[in-house]
Structure formats: C-alpha cells, structure tokens
Write a structure and sequence with these properties.
The chain is an alpha+beta fold and 123 residues long. It has a single domain, classed as 2-Layer Sandwich (Alpha-Beta Plaits). The protein has three helices and four strands. The protein has a four-stranded antiparallel sheet.
C-alpha cells in the first residue's frame, strides 16, 4: 500500500507565485526520487474555529493563508530512501533557489508521514 507525506504551511498571500515556483522545483525533485504524485493546495474555504483550526496550527497571520500539500509514495521504503537522498542533495546545495528566499516560514510548517489504513474509490 502507498505511503503519504503531508504538509501544512502558512504562506503570505503576496507570495503565491513564489510559493508555486518553489513547489514546482521541489516537487519535481520528489517525483524524480520516486514519488507517484504531489498535490499542492491553496487555502480556499478555511474557517476559524473556536478551539483549533488550520490557521492556529501554523500561526498564520491575516496576511497569510494555509497551504496543504501531500506526496504519495509507492511505499514507505521508497519514501525513506528518497528523503535520505534529498537531505544529501540539499546539504550539497542542489536545492538552490538562487537569491530568492523561501516564500514561507519553514519553522511554522507541520509535516509528517502517514500509513494509509483505508482507501475507497480511486482509479
């Protein structure tokens, strides 16, 4: 069964194009490393909750929205191998965005790996 990485990120509204450019670069690295697909989603219908919500989870400001991204891998072993290769590539400077800073604050990103336990529908 596949393996999923999920990411929740606060992104300044003004940085949508920069976020997409960085995502295309990084996501292609994921595909090249074995990911089956990558989905980048821009907050569209997000509600502020009374106790918790996406905004609070990443401390998003009024000038930011929440991006939700996920990566589908064929299995956890492929994902773990890809993460190790990508960490080495980043340490070697291969994830170079030039003079452009990251379009979001990575310290407020939430991410993790998930083992699917139920799948309905699909192709």
């Amino acid at each position: 069964m596949s393996y999923i990485d999920g990411y929740v990120i606060a992104v300044p509204l003004a940085n949508k194009d920069k976020f997409l450019a960085a995502a295309k670069h990084f996501d292609q690295m994921l595909i090249d490393a074995g990911a089956l697909r990558v989905m980048e989603c821009w907050g569209d219908d997000l509600k502020h909750g009374k106790q918790t919500d996406f905004f609070r989870a990443v401390e998003a400001t009024d000038e930011e929205t929440v991006a939700f991204s996920w990566v589908e891998w064929p299995d956890k072993e492929t994902r773990d191998d890809a993460h190790a290769k990508m960490e080495a590539a980043m340490a070697a400077g291969e994830f170079d965005m030039g003079d452009e800073p990251m379009p979001f604050d990575g310290k407020r990103m939430i991410f993790g790996g998930f083992a699917p336990i139920l799948e309905l529908g699909g192709e």
